[in-house]
Amino acid sequence: MIKRILWFVIGTLAGVYAVTRLKKRAQQLAPESLQASADKVAAAIRHFGDEVRAGMAERETELRDALGIDTASDDREDYR
């Protein structure tokens, strides 16, 4: 009798755990969640690009200063 109750409790807990995990996974795969994830990735890529461009501009300034190139007459394009 006690074995049956124990197995019933274990089965119930396993079922609750499985349902909880499946609900969480379903929410992660919902279109809204996927869109939010895509937005985060896009923002991270945009931020990375901005940082790379800032580093390029800084390094270009350093090189121009080191080589003595006049920057006043230079028409630089915005790489964005």
From TrEMBL:
Which Pfam family, just one, is annotated for this protein?
DUF6167
- What superkingdom heads the lineage? Bacteria
| The protein's name in its UniProt record | Secreted protein
